[in-house]
């Protein structure tokens, strides 16, 4: 190799590029933090929604089955079925309203 200097000096990185890379890294970290799921597992709102749906479906289906059984035993079709449907729906909505007026267990335990 020769001892002569190259015709062009190597370009040193500019401080602005280093600052830009640091800002980009910080922005990526903030974006990853923002996009990370906040809730671990199932929260109380999801459970109460599932409980309301189960109450509604259970009340309607249970009322229909009881009404159908009354129709079959008493021979008053379709009035037993309609009455059972109405009573099952009313019971389901009552259950939903009562559960909506109670505090979830997670909030009651944490003292908020």
Blueprint of the fold:
Blueprint: H1 15-35, H2 44-74, H3 79-100, H4 105-110
Helix pairs in contact: 2-3
Which labels suit this protein?
112 residues, mainly alpha, 4 helices, 71% helix
Which term fits the overall shape? rod-shaped
* Biggest sheet layout: none
Strand content: under 5%
- The helix-strand sequence is HHHH
Compute the number of helices: 4
Question: What is the CA-based Rg, rounded?
Answer: 34 Å
Oligomeric state of the chains in view:
single chain
The helix fraction, in percent, is over 70%
Description:
The chain is mainly alpha-helical. The protein has 4 helices and no strands. The chain has helices at residues 15-35, 44-74, 79-100, 105-110. Helix 2 runs antiparallel to helix 3. The N and C termini lie far apart (76 Å).
């Amino acid at each position: 190799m020769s001892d002569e200097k190259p015709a062009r000096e190597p370009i040193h990185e500019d401080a602005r590029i280093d600052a830009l890379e640091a800002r980009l890294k910080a922005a990526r970290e903030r974006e990853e933090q923002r996009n990370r799921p906040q809730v671990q597992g199932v929260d109380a709102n999801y459970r109460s929604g599932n409980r309301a749906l189960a109450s509604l479906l259970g009340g309607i289906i249970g009322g229909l089955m009881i009404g159908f059984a009354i129709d079959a035993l008493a021979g008053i079709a379709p009035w037993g079925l309609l009455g059972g449907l109405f009573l099952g729906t009313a019971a389901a909505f009552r259950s939903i309203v009562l559960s909506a007026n109670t505090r979830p267990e997670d909030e009651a335990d944490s003292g908020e």
